[in-house]
Specification:
The protein has helices at about 5-15, 95-125; strands at about 20-30, 40-55, 55-70, 75-90, 145. The protein is an alpha+beta fold. It has a 5-stranded mixed beta sheet with strand order 1-4-3-2-5, covered by helices on one side. Helix 1 (about 5-15) crosses helix 2.
């Protein structure tokens, strides 16, 4: 497994030869599990990344799963969203597996995370809950999973 600093350097190099051409919300499922809010909501979330290449393009899907629990550890809210990012690769050869993985885990997460923060904040507020404010920084690799 590549260390964090190496991933950052590889991602930065890939960023020099790619450009974002599309970003869209592909799916959204939000549920107010229990409208009886008891105390402070504690969010738990994870991110699942899938990345692939088509000739001249890198396609990355980011599925965020957020579950909010109250002070008694009872579920209150569940939000699942998938964002799709498409990048044009502006060089003659495809990305290596390490380049694609590093780029999707570092640069891609940094691009998509603010959109997810806004979506979660907006959805929880519309549900009549105290709006969740996710951290400014994207999640660490410990919460990122990859397809097997």
């Amino acid at each position: 497994m590549m260390e964090e600093n190496s991933k950052r350097l590889l991602s930065d190099a890939v960023s020099e030869v790619t450009s974002l051409i599309d970003l869209r919300l592909r799916s959204l499922d939000s549920q107010l599990v229990s409208p009886a809010n008891r105390g402070t909501l504690t969010p738990g979330f994870s991110v699942h990344i899938e990345a692939a290449q088509l000739p001249g393009f890198a396609v990355c899907d980011y599925t965020y799963s957020l579950d909010g629990k109250d002070d008694r550890e009872e579920p209150v809210v569940a939000i699942r969203s998938t964002f799709n990012l498409v990048f044009k690769i502006e060089r003659d050869h495809p990305l290596s597996a390490d380049e694609l993985d590093s780029f999707s885990e570092v640069a891609g997460l940094e691009i998509v995370h603010p959109y997810v923060r806004e979506l979660v904040h907006n959805m929880t507020g519309r549900m009549g809950l105290p709006p969740f404010v996710l951290e400014v920084r994207p999640p660490s690799n410990s919460s990122v999973t990859r397809p097997q």
